[in-house]
Fold this protein.
Amino acid sequence: MSQMQENKLSTFDISGFQGDLIGWYSNEKRDLPWRLNRDPYRVWISEIMLQQTRVDTVIPFYNRFMEKFPTIQALADADEQEVLKAWEGLGYYSRARNLQTAAREVVALHEGKMPSVPKLLGALKGIGPYTKGAILSIAFGQPEPAVDGNVMRVLSRILEIDEDIALPKTRKTFEALVRALISHEDPSSFNQGLMELGALICTPQSPMCLFCPVQQHCRAFHTGRQLELPVKSKAKKKKTIRYAALLIHNSDGKVLIEKRPQTGLLAGLWQFPMIEMGVKGETLEGKAAKELGIGLEVGDKAGVLKHVFTHLIWEIDIFNAITTVAEPASERMRFVTMEEMEERPFPVSHQKMMPYLSREQ
DNA sequence: GAGACGTGGGG
DNA sequence: TCCCCAAGTCT
């Protein structure tokens, strides 16, 4: 820890802060499904789902997931497509794939029980520094830091830390601070209290300082700097990619879909074939025939769609098309009925295209 | 360390 | 419309 941070802690009322934070959390914490008990599996699933995702969004996914995969063994035994289907619409799909990989690791290496040793837990796929600390403190009661965006924002204000929280190295600063601040009597309530405070009171936009249980401990409130902190550098602009999406019907009344590659964007999910439309070039029909390996007749544009990801934008023109081909040329492509389509995981971008499917045939 | 990696909600 | 997010991790 730097000299400046040690100075800030030397005049800080640690036990008073712990008491006020934990007292508030005990009274005001939300009643959430993953707070039913401390079962490490339940805590683990919740922490993965909550990564970069709001509580209100997670709740229904969490309940359905726990019903479908009640144990680590059940998750390990499941088909990957089944797990992705349960994750459909939640985003960041590598979380689901890593989760199942880790479940299989736990079965193979730890007799099906979540390890409570930090190094073993952190070695599991998809469990980084934050999730490791969250599981260790919440499920196993260990005084380990669990530093997420909330914790960095809250502590930036309370201790007036001016480091850029967008920089990866900054997390280490806050882990050191939490190690100095954390309650050894109730590390779970301390860590969750910090996050709950960030979610309910010490929000990014308009923090409700007048209702804050640790207002008297907050340096930023006393200096009026709560709106300036935390320091966070801006993201860069997104790139736009233009596509034509093809809803290709055959004479059996089925529609052509393809499975995306096992790595990268939307890995392992299914979609309607898309043709990238760069600057000019061949006709859509010609490009489609070449890339898909089948002849087809493209109809009028059925609609347009804009889908915004974290780092890029898809602008998609949607076309219905007809082919006389009965079997796709590629292994990863299938002609399917509507019923068969619904069994497979699709990204939201392609769910939005389904209403444009031609009814006739 | 920078960039990839989803989605839906709010101001 | 646009920008900022929301309990991060992997490469």
User: Anything to note?
Assistant: Residues 52-54, 56-57, 89-95, 167-169, 205, 236, 264-267, 307-312, 347-349 of chain A lie near DNA strand B (CB under 10 Å from a C1').
